[in-house]
Write a structure and sequence with these properties.
heterodimer; A: alpha/beta; six-stranded mixed β-sheet; 9 helices; 34% helix; 27% strand; globular; B: mainly alpha; two-stranded antiparallel sheet; 11 helices; 3% strand
Chain lengths: 236, 288
């Protein structure tokens, strides 16, 4: 495995009294594409929020390039080169399509992605650049959300449920675009309920179940039965 | 007829001052959902700062703005990051209580420093100067106030919709968490919004101080006029705020024309009528 870019060690997460993650250990190598799968409520989104700094943690719980970042604010994490495409897209309704993209570039990291390259990836967005972001279709909004994250030129990009609520044809388009995105030397974590899609583009998979890792392995090695067991918590 | 035209024109120009009271309120409510009860007292504080500056340096109040504006903006940033940010959250009560406390502190500090005697800024004659427009005498200071209000609102509008700073304001206003993910530190963005609001407050305070006499206790009334202008115009709409100020100003001057004691009440009645007919104000912001 390549040298670890992101390491989680004993990562817990809480919402008040409720504990959502229990001592997760994970290691993501540079350039890897990791799939995180699991049922609703398994803790996938909580994991994304913890890594991106939206959920504060022990500093040592998350290490990025060796630096303890668990206690940093989300804007500080963003500046280190970690971007999140949040669940439900969450575009800024007061901002136009182009403004949403531009605010993604706020961290000002140099790299391949700019308005121009995002428009090359998703040409429809250039046509709609001055429209209100919320006037777009769900699939187009997802393109804006992905483009917005890319504008930060992250080293690590986190995708949270990018296929949720989208038509199959749109999901296929977005997944077809993914290799072009991560092909730019990016490391990616893909959270998905659509297991087949996630496994197709990833090299390793983690399955979460009730806040714990129930399965971990190379995508080619894990069997369908193992995934089913890990996903639903049944004995295979 | 010309008499009534004069009343209306006076009201419109007075509305410019009210729009300046309101613009800062509208801005901070729009960006961080903070209702600043101390807003009126901050206007009076700016007027007193103008007084000290003009007396100490012997400069015109407009020149004093070069000092008062940055000082008020700096105060706003420190106030926001030092105190007000800690009060923001799901509960709207803490910021109300804290800014109410701030209002009391500012009033008493002004009273202690400047006494309760009414004071006025010396505009060097522009307060009484007027220009003749077809038989209608228009006060130079009210006219300047109105034009400054238009310029300030156009400037704020430009900042909000044409600059990276404004994009940050709107993004944080839409969704604080996601804005933070984009690398915007909301504590800093809120600080900048308050700084901008208090820079506008500085302008409002100086213009108020040249127009009428002021004392430490009149902040509350300015807050109410500001509130009314914001609500008549529609929350979150800066040009609406100008319209709200104008409606309030015209209602007051018409009231005063009917009976001098009726001025303030006429404004409140106009406000109530608008609120009854259009609870969201005349020009509420249309969210996409």
């Amino acid at each position: 495995m390549p040298e670890a870019l992101l390491t989680l060690s004993g990562l817990d997460a809480h919402y008040g009294d409720f504990q959502a993650l229990y001592g997760l250990d994970m290691s993501i190598g540079e350039g890897e594409v990791i799939a995180i799968i699991g049922a609703n409520g398994a803790g996938k989104t909580t994991l994304m929020r913890s890594i991106s700094g939206l959920l504060k943690n022990r500093a040592e719980g998350v290490r990025y390039r060796g630096q303890a970042i668990g206690a940093l604010r989300a804007d500080q994490v963003a500046e280190l080169g970690i971007a999140l495409v949040p669940e439900g897209r969450q575009l800024f309704p007061s901002l136009s399509v182009e403004e949403n993209l531009m605010i993604g570039g706020k961290v000002g990291r140099p790299g391949h992605w700019s308005l121009q390259t995002v428009y090359e990836l998703f040409p429809i967005l250039e046509e709609r650049r001055h429209q209100a972001s919320t006037s777009l279709s769900g699939g187009q909004q997802q393109m804006v959300a992905i483009g917005r994250a890319l504008m930060a030129n992250p080293e690590l990009i986190l995708f949270d449920e990018i296929s949720l609520g989208l038509a199959p044809v749109i999901i296929r388009q977005i997944y077809e675009a993914l290799p072009g995105i991560v092909g730019q030397g990016m490391t990616a974590m893909i959270v998905e309920q659509d297991i087949a899609q996630a496994l197709k583009v990833s090299s390793r998979v983690y399955c979460l179940q009730e806040g714990r890792i129930s399965l971990e392995g190379a995508t080619g090695d894990v069997t369908h039965d193992q995934i089913t067991a890990a996903y639903f918590g049944m004995d295979a | 007829m010309i008499e009534w035209t004069g009343v209306i024109v006076q009201g419109v120009l007075l509305g410019g001052l009210y729009a300046l009271f309101a613009a800062g309120l509208s801005l901070i409510f729009g960006v961080m959902r903070l209702v600043n009860i101390a807003h009126g007292d901050l206007i009076i504080l700016a007027a007193y700062m103008g007084l000290t500056t003009t007396v100490m340096l012997g400069v015109h109040p407009f020149l004093a703005l070069l000092i008062v504006m940055p000082v008020m903006a700096g105060l706003g940033y420190v106030l926001q990051r030092g105190i007000l940010n800690q009060t923001l959250g799901d509960d709207i009560l803490p910021p109300l209580l804290v800014t109410f406390g701030l209002s009391v502190i500012i009033q008493n500090a002004l009273l202690e420093t400047y006494t309760a005697d009414p004071r006025k800024l010396d505009g060097g004659g522009i307060e009484v100067a007027s220009i003749d427009m077809g038989g209608l005498a228009i006060g130079v200071l009210p006219l300047m106030t109105f034009l400054i209000a238009v310029a300030v609102i156009a400037g704020l509008q430009f900042i909000f919709y044409r600059t990276a700073l404004g994009r940050g304001f709107r993004a944080v206003s839409d969704n604080q968490d996601i804005a933070q993910l984009m690398g915007l530190n909301k504590a800093h963005v809120f600080g900048l919004a308050m700084a901008l609001a208090l820079a506008v407050v500085a302008i409002a305070g100086i213009l108020l101080g040249m127009r009428t006499s002021f004392d430490p206790a009149i902040g509350g009334g300015r807050l109410i006029f500001g509130f009314e202008a914001v609500i008549i115009g529609g929350l979150g709409n800066l040009w609406g705020t100008l319209a709200g100020g104008v409606i309030l100003g015209v209602a007051q001057t018409i009231g005063a024309k009917i009976d001098p004691g009726f001025q303030i009440l006429a404004g409140h009645i106009a406000f109530l009528i608008v609120l009854a007919i259009r609870p969201n104000g005349l020009f509420p912001r249309v969210d996409h």
